[in-house]
Design goal:
Organism: Bacillus infantis
Shape: globular
CATH class of the largest domain: Alpha Beta
Number of strands: 14
Number of domains: 3
GO molecular function: transferase activity
Keywords: Transferase
Structural class: alpha+beta
Order of helices and strands: HHHHEHEHEEEEEEHEEHHHHHHHHEEEEH
CATH architecture of the largest domain: 2-Layer Sandwich
Protein name: Nucleotidyltransferase family protein
Pfam family, one: NTP_transf_5
């Protein structure tokens, strides 16, 4: 991406329409950038004749109206069910954006206070016809269950409602969380479509943005736009207290560096994907993870081994490496140990047989069945399994996977 194009987008996303006669806002390269940086909505708004992904701005407005109405119904019923929840990220940041500047969101993100609250959410959504998007991820830290669960529903006419739930806190990394008590203690109400919803306060929204940037594979223009609108509302001393507490300095530096480059018209995010960049992002994460765990958790060599094997396995999956090699790594990490040590673990659904507590059953060395109030699952490191394992699980559980 050229520096000029990045700043064209930066201006558009702040509601500043480019006046240069030589700026072609319908060129294919700008549409490509919009997709990569999640900036489709502002580009379409200022180009009424443009279509991206076969959508015009009028199409987007209709889709957003349907999704917002559906979200309003969900929020109302969550409140009636006395669920402890808050909305974060895209919805929360709407508070800071001018009304004439749209912010693109793919899904709606929630914090659910406890796993017990999420049981209620899950049962309600299942009745509405929602299904898992991918497999739920859970971990246990000092007896507390954390989770990331994505669910979706077809609303008709090809429109999909996508919801993402952070259970027990907001995910910082594969093994660390911004705990729910800090989030709920630093929250406020925001009026969304005539409905009052709980969102993080400005400082917590900044911390969440910093965390998001730290985990992204590349710098996004939209993150800098979010910061531009949010920055004047941040309680800086409180923000720095939390940055230090959670060891997020490296994440914050990445956000502020990208923002400064865009402000100075020096941002150039046209670098090809490379192993070096992947390592750089990994090291940024580890600058948070290792110091934080040393300060706040008991861990040992076994934990570090499991953690880095999981990191390696996930990277190899991402790079579409040999499944045989991935399976060898899979056999080195016991899934039940991974779950209990606080590393997010795939819970692959088998059936709807439920019990009121979390209880595992070992079928053999690394095939663990787990029953809980959601149903029956088997634990998986990388969701890479041989046919013999699948056959054995089907025979043992009496269910088709």
């Amino acid at each position: 991406m050229s520096k000029k194009k990045s700043n064209i987008f930066y201006d558009i996303c702040r509601g500043i329409f480019p006046t240069e006669s030589n700026v072609n806002l319908k060129c294919e390269s700008l549409s490509t950038i919009a997709k990569k940086h999640r900036l489709i909505y502002p580009l379409l708004k200022y180009n009424k004749d443009l279509r991206i992904n076969n959508l015009s701005w009028e199409d987007v407005k209709k889709i957003e109206n349907i999704k917002q109405q559906h979200l309003k119904e969900l929020i109302t019923n969550f409140s009636l069910l006395k669920i402890n929840f808050m909305l974060i990220k895209g919805i929360a940041l709407k508070k800071y954006y001018p009304h004439n500047v749209p912010r693109q969101s793919i899904d709606y993100d929630f914090i659910i206070k406890t796993i017990e609250d999420f049981f209620v959410v899950y049962n309600y959504l299942k009745e509405l016809g929602y299904e898992y998007e991918g497999f739920p991820l859970f971990s246990e830290v000092e007896g507390k269950i954390y989770g990331i669960v994505k669910m979706e529903k077809d609303l008709g006419n090809g429109l999909i409602s996508k919801l993402e739930f952070n259970v027990g806190g907001f995910l910082i990394s594969e093994v660390t969380w911004l705990d729910e008590d800090i989030l709920f203690d630093n929250s406020e109400y925001f009026e969304l479509n005539d409905t009052m919803v709980l969102i993080p306060n400005s400082t917590m929204n900044y911390i969440i943005l910093v965390i998001e940037v730290g985990g992204n594979p590349y710098d996004r223009i939209r993150d800098s736009v979010d910061y531009f609108f949010l920055r004047e509302s941040i309680n800086t001393p409180k923000a720095q207290e939390l940055i230090n507490k959670y060891n997020l300095k490296s994440f914050e530096k990445r956000l502020l560096t990208a923002y400064k480059l865009i402000e100075q018209n020096k941002f150039n995010n046209n670098k090809p994907k490379s192993l070096l960049n992947d390592i750089k992002v990994r090291l940024l994460k580890d600058q948070h993870i290792l110091p934080y765990l040393i300060k706040n958790r008991t861990f040992n060599f076994k934990f570090l081994f499991n953690y880095y094997m999981v990191v390696l396995g996930n990277y190899l999956i991402y790079k579409k490496a040999s499944l045989t090699f991935i399976k060898k790594i899979d056999n080195l990490v016991l899934t039940i140990n991974r779950f209990r040590s606080g590393i997010l673990t795939n819970f692959v659904p088998i059936n709807d047989n439920r019990i009121n507590k979390w209880k595992e059953k070992k079928l053999r060395k690394n095939l663990i069945i787990y029953r809980n109030p959601f149903g029956t699952f088997f634990l998986s490191n990388f969701c890479v399994h041989e046919q013999e394992e699948i056959d054995f699980l089907e025979k043992s559980t009496g269910s088709l996977l």
